[in-house]
């Protein structure tokens, strides 16, 4: 616990807090802001928090004044090396002490993360649309004053597979290359080409990480506990993995990516063939929407995605603190 003038900060597992009280605070603090969602109620927020409460890795820092909540910052600690804030956190009441309370919560979270042995603390501000411009400036200021730096900017792109017609002629792979079902290829065979691809790529967030942190990202993306859709493809040349496109279904939609190809096979039309095949399989299975994320500076990748009907929906900013 930390006490600053009139404000007390505590750290809690979500299961241990007064969830109705926290839900009421979150609703009141965001109801007249860009963060308020249509049809959002105190009850819907409470239900969401109840669902999180079974996860021991969901932590919330709460700032209170006279027993009333004035700020909250959720942190996820379920990975090794890297911890994450919930998007657009902390949530703070508007008022004269808003910035001070926000920065104190962030600093408190930094101390906690460091004490738990993490080496990186990440913040994701998403989505960012023109309506978020003012609040983004505010959050950016808070995190920079607390010692964070901007790690990257990404775009989220989306294609409506009900309306988008794929080219009638399917691009073919060069001779000697073939598609393979990801379920038939163990992670041990994918790991080296994955790192070759991404360490020579344009994903600034990934390149900002240490080798150990990058391994955490690989393990998360390629975890087998959450099934892949059959549109997830591994590209083989003879017995060698040279590329990949991960796809997982989410209700009527699909999450696409990460996507990668080892550099010596660039500019051979391979990823064009991969994307066409993946999207064709999604359409065949009645998937309506596919979305993916890309570094905003990765012009070649974004150009390729837009050729397949993907459109930019919004951007997202990542900030990071390297634990010292």
Record the SSE blueprint:
Layout: E1 2-4, E2 7-13, H1 19-30, H2 42-52, E3 58-65, E4 68-76, E5 82-85, E6 91-92, H3 98-115, E7 120-128, H4 133-145, E8 149-160, E9 177-181, H5 187-198, H6 204-207, H7 211-221, E10 233-237, E11 240-250, E12 253-261, H8 270-284, E13 289-295, H9 299-307, E14 311-322
Parallel strand pairs: 5-7, 12-13
Antiparallel strand pairs: 1-2, 2-3, 3-4, 4-5, 4-6, 7-14, 8-13, 8-14, 9-10, 10-11, 11-12
Determine the fraction of residues in helical runs and give it as a percent range. Answer: 25-40%
At CATH level 2, the architecture of the largest domain is: 3-Layer(aba) Sandwich
* SSE sequence, one letter per element: EEHHEEEEHEHEEHHHEEEHEHE
CATH superfamily of the largest domain: Gcn5-related N-acetyltransferase (GNAT)
Q: How many angstroms does the end-to-end distance come to?
A: 22 Å
Largest sheet: 14 strands, mixed
CATH fold-level name of the largest domain: Aminopeptidase
Number of domains: 2
Instruction: Compute the average pLDDT.
Output: 95
Structural class: alpha+beta
Number of discrete helical segments: 9
Instruction: Categorize the overall geometry.
Output: elongated
Got a strand count?
A: 14
pLDDT < 50 runs, ≥5 residues: none
The Rg value, from CA coordinates, equals 22 Å
CATH class bucket of the largest domain: Alpha Beta
SS strand fraction: 25-35%
Question: What would you say this structure looks like, in words?
Answer:
The structure is a single chain. This protein has about 325 residues and is α+β, with helices and mostly antiparallel strands. It folds into two domains: about 1-145, Gcn5-related N-acetyltransferase (GNAT) (Aminopeptidase), CATH 3.40.630; about 160-315, Gcn5-related N-acetyltransferase (GNAT) (Aminopeptidase, 3-Layer(aba) Sandwich). The protein has helices at about 20-30, 40-50, 100-115, 135-145, 185-200, 205, 210-220, 270-285, 300-305; strands at about 1-5, 5-15, 60-65, 70-75, 80-85, 90, 120-130, 150-160, 175-180, 235, 240-250, 255-260, 290-295, 310-320. Strands 1, 2, 3, 4, 5, 6, 7, 8, 9, 10, 11, 12, 13 and 14 form a 14-stranded mixed sheet that branches. A hairpin with a 2-residue loop joins strand 10 and strand 11 (about 240-250).
């Amino acid at each position: 616990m930390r006490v600053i003038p009139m404000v007390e900060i505590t750290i809690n597992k979500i299961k241990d807090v007064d969830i109705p009280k926290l839900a009421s605070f979150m609703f009141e603090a965001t109801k007249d802001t860009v963060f308020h969602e249509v049809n959002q109620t105190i009850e819907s927020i409470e239900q969401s928090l109840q669902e999180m409460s079974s996860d021991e890795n969901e932590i919330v820092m709460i700032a209170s004044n006279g027993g009333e909540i004035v700020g909250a910052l959720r942190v996820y600690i379920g990975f090794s090396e890297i911890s994450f804030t919930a998007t657009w956190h902390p949530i703070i009441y508007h008022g004269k002490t808003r910035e001070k309370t926000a920065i104190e919560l962030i600093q408190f979270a930094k101390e906690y993360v460091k004490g738990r042995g993490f080496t990186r603390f990440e913040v994701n501000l998403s989505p960012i649309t023109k309506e978020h411009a003012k609040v983004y400036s505010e959050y950016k200021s808070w995190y920079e004053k607390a010692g964070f730096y901007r790690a990257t900017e990404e775009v989220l792109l989306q294609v409506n597979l009900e309306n988008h017609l794929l080219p009638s002629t399917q691009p073919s792979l060069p001779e000697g290359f073939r598609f393979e079902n990801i379920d038939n290829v163990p992670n041990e065979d994918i790991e080296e080409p994955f790192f070759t691809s991404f360490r020579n790529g344009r994903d600034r967030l990934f390149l900002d990480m240490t080798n150990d942190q990058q391994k955490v990202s690989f393990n998360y993306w390629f975890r087998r506990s959450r099934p892949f859709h059959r549109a997830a493809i591994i590209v083989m040349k003879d017995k060698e993995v040279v590329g990949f496109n991960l796809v997982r279904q989410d209700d009527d939609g699909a999450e696409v990516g990460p996507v990668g190809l080892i550099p010596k096979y660039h500019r051979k039309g391979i990823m064009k063939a991969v994307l066409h095949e993946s999207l064709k399989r999604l359409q065949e299975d009645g998937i309506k929407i596919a979305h993916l994320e890309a570094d905003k500076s990765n012009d070649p990748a974004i150009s390729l995605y837009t050729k397949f009907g993907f459109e930019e929906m919004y951007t997202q900013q990542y900030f990071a603190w390297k634990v010292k």
